[in-house]
Amino acid sequence: MQSKETLYEIKDLVVEYHTRYGVVNAVDHVSFDIYRGEVLGLVGESGCGKSTLGKALMRMIEAPGEIAAGELILNGVDLLGLTPKEMRDVRGSQISMIFQDPMTSLNPVQRIQDHLTETISTHEPDAEKPTMLQRVKRLIERLGIQTQRLDDYPHQLSGGMRQRVMIGLGLVLNANLIIADEATTSLDVIVEAKLADQLMEIKEEFGISILAITHNIALVAQLADRLAVMYAGRIVEIGSVYEVFDDPKHPYTRGLLQSVPSIKLDDHEDLYKMAGEPPDLTNPPSGCRFHPRCPEAMPICSQEKPTLQEISPGRSVHCWLYEDHPEKEPLVSENS
Amino acid sequence: MKSPDSKQSTPISTKPILEEDIGLLRRFFRGRIWYGTEWYITVVGGLILFFITIMTISAPWISPHDPNEFVGAPFVAPGGGPQILISLTDEQEIIDTMQISNLVIGVHRNRSGDKYADTIGAEKIRYQSQNELIAGLEAGEINYILIDEDLEEELQFQIPSMMVIARDLGLRFPLGTDNLGRDMVSRIIWGARTVLSVAILSALLSSSIGVTLGLISGFVSGPLDRVISLVMDSIYSFPGLLLAIAMVAMLGPGMINVAVAVSVIYIPTFFRVVRGQVLSIKEELYVEAARSLGAKARSILWSYIFPNVIPSIVVVFSINIADAILTEAGLSFIGLGLPPDIPDWGYDLSKGHSFLVAGHWWLITYPGFMITLVATGFTLLGEGLSEILNPRLVKN
User: Fold this and answer.
1) Which of A97, A259, B193, B374 could disulfide-pair with B292, CB 3.0 to 4.6 Å?
2) Residue-wise pLDDT tens digits, A286-323
3) DSSP tag of A6
4) Cβ–Cβ of A122/B291 closer than 8 Å?
5) What is the pLDDT of residue B25?
6) A119/B contact by beta carbon, under 8 A
7) Does A9 contact chain B (CB < 8 Å)?
8) Which residues of B touch A109 (CB under 8 A)?
9) pLDDT < 50 stretches in chain B
10) What is the percent of chain B where pLDDT is above 70?
11) What is the pLDDT of residues A238-258, one digit of tens each?
C-alpha cells in the first residue's frame, strides 16, 4: 500500500434499531478507517449488518433505527454534527452509494440524462444546462455507454448499463468515496467481471475510495486492497486482502473462506458448512458473539467481549485467541 | 422522431437528432407507442369527449327547442310526435290548409298541435280529453280534431267513419318528450353543459385537494399523517349523498356550490389511493438512491414519487367523474342541487325512472346512455393516456 492518508474514520459506531422485540444492535462499536484511493471489501453473512453499516456511513439510517453513538469523520469533519441540509450536500458530492438492485435503483419515469443533470443541479444550482450536458456526456462515454442512450428511460437499459449509470451518478460530482452495496450481486458473472474491471479503472482514474459491501468473496479478492470481515454487527477481522486470505486469523474468517465453493472438478470434498445459525441480534450471545458457533471457543469467550487487537501492522482481529486476559484458558484442555 | 429500426440496420449513418431541433410536442411524444394494440382506446375516448365538447359549445345553435319549454305532448315516444287531422265528413272534397282556417279544431292536450292550429289560423279548442273531443266531433261542434299519429288505429276502431285528412302535421321528436312534454334532444344537448361543468369541476377540485394531501401525508407520515388520515376516513365513512346534501344545505344551491359539495365526497378516494402509493413508492430503491445523492425532500416528492402516482390518479379521476354525475343527479332529484330550470341528465334520469313502469323507457334510456358515454369517454381517454404517458412502455 502506498500512502495511507485516511479519508473516512469510523470510531465506535453503534447503530440501533428499536423494534417491538427490543433494541437490535445492528452495528456494535465498529471502528475502522477508509484510506484515500483504496478499495475496502466488507464481507459477512446476510443480516450481519453490512448494509446497515453502509447506510450509517451516509447517515441514512431511518426510524426506527438510529446512530446511537460513535463518530463519522470524513475529511476531518464529523458527519454526525452536521445539520440535515449540510448532510444532504455531503451525500452525492462526497460520498455516494450504489445499490444492490440496478433494476429498481433508477426512477422509472425519468430519462437517464435527467437523473444525471438533476444530481448536478441539486449540488450546483448555478450550473448551466449546456455545461452540465457536456459533463454528463463525457462521463457517460467514459463509462462505456453511448451518448444516445442518455435519452432513454432506465427500463431500456440492461442491468449492467444501469449499474454503470448509478456509478456515473456517484462520479458526476467527484465523490471521494463510493459505497457499493452488493453492487454486482444481481448481475451475471460476465457483466459482473466487466463492471468490476471498470470500477478499478475508475478508481485509478478518479482517485476515489470504494467500500465494496458484498458476500462475493471471489470478487473481493480481485477488487479489494483491504478486507474487513463482519459478524453479527461487529468487525471481527480487518487486514490487507492477501494476508487475510493467506492466513485467516479469526475462526469465523476461516470458516467463511472454507465455505466458498470451488469450481475445481477434482475437488470432491464437501463444502464446509459452518455450524449453527447467525445469532438473533435482539438477544445476542454474551461475550464474543461468535462463541456459540466457534470451533475454538474458550470459557472466556462467553463471558467477556474481546477487543479489536492489532496483531501486526494494519491487521486487527477481534478474538480472544489473540488477546490476553487473566481468566483466559483454552477449552481444548477441558475436553481432553 | 427517432426510428429504432434505422438505428439497428444502419448504425453508422444515424445522424443524432439534436434536442433543439425537435418541437415541444414531438419531444413530449417522442418514442411513445402510438401504434400498439391499444391506441384505439385513446382515440375512441378522445372522439367521444370531442363530440360531447362540441355539443356543449354549440348547444344554442344545434338544439331544436328550448330545453325547458313544453313543446310537445307528454310522453311522446322517440320518433313520434306528428299529428293527424281527422274529420267525420263524408264529403270527398280535398281540403287544404287554407280551407281549414276559421274552422274549429280540437287539440288533444298538445302544444305541438296547438301551434300547428295557430299557424293555419284555425280556431282551437284545447285541454279536452280524447273522449270529449270525439264527442264534440260527432256532435258537429268541432270540425276537425288533431290527434297523435299513434292513436290512429285505436280511433279507427272507435269511429269507423273517421277520415284522415292530413298526416305529418306539427313537430317530430326523435328522442321523444318527457312527462312535461319537453323535447329530449334539447335536454340532452343542454344537459351536457351542466354535466361537464359540474362533474369536471368537482373532479378537478377533489383530485387536486386529495392528491396534494395524499402526497404530503404519505411522504411526511408521523402525527400529521395520522391526523389527515383520520379526517379523511371520517369523511369517507359518511354515505356520500348524505354528506353532499349537508354540504349543499350549508352552501346553498348553484352550480359552483354543487360542484364543491360533490367534490368533498371524493377527496378521500384520491387521498387513500395516493397515500397508499406514496407509502410504497417512497420505500423504492430509486427514492433511497436519490436520497443518497443528496436530493431534497421536495424534489424527491415532486420528481420521483408524484410521476409514479399519476397513472392511478388518472384512473380514479375518470371513475370519479362518472360517479360525480350521479351524485349531482341525486342532489337535483331531492331539490337541493341545481335549480330545476337547468337541464341536467342526472335530474332527468332520477325523475324519469318512476315512469319506466308505465312503459316510458326513453325518459331514462337517453340520459343514462349519455352519462355512460361521457364516463366511458373519460375512462378510455384516461386509460389510454396513462398507457401512452407511461415511460415504462416506451418503445425500446
Assistant:
1) A97
2) 888 888 888 888 888 888 888 888 888 888 888 888 87
3) E
4) no
5) 60
6) yes
7) no
8) 307-308, 390-392
9) 1-10, 13, 35, 91-92, 94, 396
10) 74
11) 999 888 888 888 888 888 888
What is the value of pTM for the model shown?
Answer: 0.72
State the pLDDT at residue A222.
83
Q: What's the pLDDT score for residue A305?
A: 83
Interface with chain A: mutation pick from B286, B305, B394, highest number of A CBs within 10 Å? B286
Q: Which three cell numbers stand for residue B57?
A: 359549445
User: Residue B33: which of B42, B24, B44 has the closest Cα?
Assistant: B42
Interface contact A105-B299, CB threshold 8 A: no
Tell me, what's the pLDDT at A336? 36
Q: Are A105 and A99 in contact (CB under 8 A)?
A: yes
Q: What is the largest CA-CA distance in chain B?
A: 101
Q: Is the CB of residue A198 less than 8 Å from the CB of residue A144?
A: yes
The residue in chain B having the minimum alpha-carbon distance to the alpha carbon of residue A109 is B391
Q: What is the pLDDT of residues A150-200, one digit of tens each?
A: 888 888 888 888 888 888 888 888 888 888 888 777 778 888 888 888 888
Q: What is the pLDDT of residue B391?
A: 65
The DSSP call for residue A224 is -
Residues of chain A with C-beta less than 8 angstroms from the C-beta of B296: 88, 122
Q: What secondary structure, in 3-state letters, does chain B show? A: CCCHHHHHHCCCCCCCCCHHHCCHHHHHHCCCCCCCCCHHHHHHHHHHHHHHHHHHHCHHHHCCCCCCCECCCCCCCCCCCCEEEEECCCCCCCCCHHHHCCCEEEECCCHHHHHHHHHHCCEEECCCCHHHHHHHHHHCCCCEEEEEHHHHHHHHHHCCCCEEEEEEECCCCCCCECCCCEEHHHHHHHHHHHHHHHHHHHHHHHHHHHHHHHHHHHHHCCHHHHHHHHHHHHHHHCCHHHHHHHHHHHHCCCHHHHHHHHHHHHHHHHHHHHHHHHHHHCCCHHHHHHHHCCCCHHHHHHHHHHHHHHHHHHHHHHHHHHHHHHHHHHHHHCCCCCCCCCCCHHHHHHHHHHHCCCCCCHHHHHHHHHHHHHHHHHHHHHHHHHHHHCHHHCCC
The reported pLDDT for the residue numbered A263 is 66
Q: d(Cα B185, Cα B298) in Å, to the nearest integer?
A: 51
H helical segments located in chain A:
50-57, 84-93, 112-123, 129-142, 159-171, 189-206, 217-223, 241-246, 251-258, 299-303, 332-335
Residues A36-65 have pLDDT tens digits of 888 999 988 887 888 888 888 888 888 788
* Percent share of chain A, pLDDT over 70: 93
Single out the residue of B351, B384, B348 nearest to residue B369, CA to CA.
B348
In B, minimum Cα distance to A133 occurs at: B19
- How far are the Cα atoms of A7, A75, A200 from residue A208, in angstroms, in the given order? 10, 13, 10
* A107·B286 Cβ contact <8 A: yes
The answer to whether residues B352 and B180 touch, using CB atoms and an 8 Å cutoff, is no
Give the pLDDT score at A151: 83
